[in-house]
Amino acid sequence: MKWEFRQQDAVSCLTLPGWNQLGVVTAFTTRDGGYSTGAYKSLNMGLHVGDDRELVIANREIVCRSLGFELQQMVCCEQIHGNGVVVVEKHHAGRGSADLSDALLGYDAMVTDCPGVFLTEFYADCIPVYFFDPVKRVIGLAHSGWKGTALRIAEATLNVMRDRFHCLSDDIRVFIGPGIGPECFAVDDNRRNQVERLFTFHDQIIYSYNENRYVWDLHLSNRLILQQSGIPEDNIISCHICTACNPEMFFSYRKTGGHTGRMAAVLGLLD
Ligand SMILES: [Zn+2]
Predict the structure, then answer these.
(1) For residues 271 and 262, what is the distance between their CA atoms, to the nearest angstrom?
(2) Taking residues 125-152, what's their average pLDDT?
(3) How far is the CA of 92 from the centre of ligand 1 (A)?
C-alpha cells in the first residue's frame, strides 16, 4: 500500500488510496488552495497561530467539502506535546472545529470506532501518525513531535486501541506522514544524551550528519517504537517528505522561526 497526492477542487492532499477503499477518509493537507495570506498563505488550518479566524474556518470548510464531510463532524484535541490519548465518541463531533476553547483539552492523540467523526490535528514539522484496524474498524491519530516521540505517544495510542478496543497488533496498519526530516533536525549534546537514554535503538535514530552535526530522525524513531511494541514492519507505510525542505508545499515551524500556518491531518471512518 502506498500514499499519493490527490487534487480535489482547489485542494491538494496527500492520501492513502488503500485505506480510502476500505472506507477510511485519510488526508494530509498542503498549503495550497485556501484564503489566508502572508505567512499563512494559503490553506492555513490552525486557529491558534495568529491568522484571521474567519479565514481559517473558511479554509477548514474547503477541506471538509473536498473530503466529503461537514465542519461539525471535525474533532480536534488541544495538542500540548504530551502523550495523552482520548477516546472520541459521537457526541464529541464538532469539538475544536470552529473554536479553540472547546477542543479536547490535554490530549495529543485520538482513537475512535465511531463512523462520521473526523479526527483532525494540526501540523508544521511534527510527525502525524495514522492508525487503522480494518478488522475491528478502529482508527487513531497521534501528534508526534520530538516531545511526543520521546514520550512514545505512538505506543500510547496503540495501547488504547489494544486495551479498549481489543485490536490485534497484526491487524493494525500505520501510516507515518510528512514531517521534519533528519537532515533538518539537528540536536545539541543535551538532547542527544536525553534521546540516548530513552531508546535502545538510539544509534539508529541519532547520527552524525555533515561532519560534526548530530541529527535526530523522528520518522524512523516512530517506526521503531511501533515495531518494538509489536506492529509488523510490513504494516507500516512511511512518507519521507520533509516539511522543512519543501516550503512551497508545506508550512514549517523550524524553517520560519515559528511564524507560519498549519497543515491538517484528517482521519475518519465512513458508515
Ligand atoms: Zn528537510
Answers:
(1) 28
(2) 98
(3) 36
